[in-house]
């Protein structure tokens, strides 16, 4: 018995959205359920909008989680869905599954109607979701619109859904975005004062101390900064291109061909650098180690690095660059300092 069949026969759109919301809250969807959910979302434009509001309201219950009424009603909704899941594959209790799914949905609809629904329709009350990784950690997140977000180590991304757009902000680090198609709601990622806009595509954004980078793998994106200066003009990328923009407000971004395999290598635990300055390389290497590598001599910050390194293996990285360049290291308790071997005059 498919949830969408039950929903389509006797449940309102709000109840269908609520049932899916509760199902997602109870755990990850298996491939068949994910396909069923995708089918339901694409069947009607209204489904996605109502589902988004249900998701925002469900997450917003945490703001009033101490209320005994909310605790009881939310627990009832999840318990009803768990009973439905236990019985859904038994032909003898298909009626119970239909009843339990409807009950779970109706419980959430009641919560939304009485406590939250009207409050969460205004964007002023909607709080963005925050996804963050720590040192050496990566994470893959499937968003409620079907988009997939891959976070590199030490990365923070905020996600906010509005009726007419999907607004993400890369606060730090690097992330890859595989965007679920929704022509009515553009998908935007802001980092370093520039916004990348797409409707259905695959791209990555990286924020460094001095630069931001956008690499386009599939589809098309536009990257623009606020204002009317030449540096703010919109730039359209084609697959295989990379935009690099200095974080200075007046800097004009440059577009160049990207090494797509190298640009994806971090997802598999490798860091690929092609003629990159040491100072930028260290930002990426340090995402994977609690022992930070620092530059102790300004003369070495501009050394250009080319090579492939295993993420998290700082020792091998240091051995490689000190063997290839006139560099030496000084090891302290919590950091390693890189200096030039060449004596100053």
TrEMBL record:
Gene Ontology molecular-function annotations: sigma factor antagonist activity
Domain FecR protein, residue spans: 131-222
InterPro entries in the cross-refs: FecR, FecR_N, Ferrdict_sens_TM
Chain ranges of the FecR N-terminal domain: 15-55
Protein's UniProt name: DUF4880 domain-containing protein
């Amino acid at each position: 018995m498919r949830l969408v069949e039950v929903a389509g026969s006797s449940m309102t759109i709000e109840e269908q959205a609520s049932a899916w919301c509760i199902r997602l809250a109870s755990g990850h969807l298996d491939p068949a359920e994910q396909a069923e959910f995708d089918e339901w979302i694409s069947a009607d434009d209204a489904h996605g909008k109502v589902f988004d509001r249900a998701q925002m309201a469900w997450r917003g219950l945490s703001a009033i989680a101490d209320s005994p009424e909310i605790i009881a009603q939310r627990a009832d909704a999840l318990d009803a869905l768990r009973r439905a899941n236990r019985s859904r594959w038994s032909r003898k209790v298909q009626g119970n599954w239909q009843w339990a799914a409807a009950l779970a949905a109706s419980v959430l609809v009641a919560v939304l109607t009485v406590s939250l629904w009207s409050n969460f329709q205004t964007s002023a009350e909607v709080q963005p979701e925050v996804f963050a990784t720590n040192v050496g950690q990566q994470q893959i997140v499937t968003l409620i619109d079907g988009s997939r977000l891959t976070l590199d180590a030490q990365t923070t991304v905020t996600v906010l859904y509005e009726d007419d757009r999907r607004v993400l902000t890369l606060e730090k680090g690097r992330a890859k975005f595989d965007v679920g198609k929704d022509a009515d709601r553009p998908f935007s990622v802001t980092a370093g004062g520039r916004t990348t806009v797409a409707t259905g595509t695959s791209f990555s954004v990286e924020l460094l101390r001095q630069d931001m980078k956008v690499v386009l793998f599939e589809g098309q994106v536009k990257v623009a900064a606020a204002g009317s200066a030449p540096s703010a003009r919109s730039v359209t990328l084609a697959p295989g291109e990379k935009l690099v923009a200095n974080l200075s407000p007046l800097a004009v971004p440059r577009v160049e061909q990207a090494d797509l395999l190298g640009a994806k290598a971090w997802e598999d635990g490798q860091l690929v650098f092609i003629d990159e300055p040491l100072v930028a390389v260290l930002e990426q290497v340090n995402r994977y180690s609690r022992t930070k590598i620092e530059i102790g001599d300004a003369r070495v910050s501009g050394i250009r690095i080319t090579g492939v390194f295993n993420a998290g293996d700082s020792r091998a990285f240091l051995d490689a660059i000190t063997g290839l360049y006139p560099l030496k290291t000084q090891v302290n308790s919590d950091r390693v300092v890189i200096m030039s071997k060449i004596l100053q005059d």
